[in-house]
Write a structure and sequence with these properties.
two-stranded antiparallel sheet, alpha+beta
Length: 182
Amino acid sequence: MKSFLLDLKKSLAPFVRTIPRILITVSLLFIFSCSAVNYSGFCWSQKRYLSDQEKINFVVDHVLQRYRPQVEIYEMIDDKKLLLSRKDIPNNLILYQSKKDFFGSNKNCCEVKKTLDKSIDLNDGEPGEISFFHRISGTVSDLVHLKYLVRYKDSDGDIVSVLHHTSIAVSSCSSIPNLIND
């Protein structure tokens, strides 16, 4: 019996030595696969990829819920805009009534990208790309670029419209991380 156990131990020794290597390899493959799927924008909680339109709708809802954009403040004098302040929150904002109202007033307002648009002056954030770490962790999947009208009444009651640009980071599942926000 003892010799049988010794023979068994000798025959299994190479296999036993390879088990840690196999476990490490399988673990690394699993981590790499999950990271690759995160990098591609897969939403694990919903087990699917979200469409660009879903991400845009989510961001527009977010913007409308906390609608306090900082814009250049103008006063209308003789049908001309006179700049009063560089960046401020207008006192008499005209709110959008709904998402439908927002999209109706802002045709082609929204775009989903992987990079910040260097051609526009963003309110916050620097031009660049989403970091590799944020992509593989799923923290940030895309940036939703918005160009929309901010409407307000000046001190005389005239309606002033100012084009506002912003980019908002969204995760793979359309949550908004506290990174590059409006």
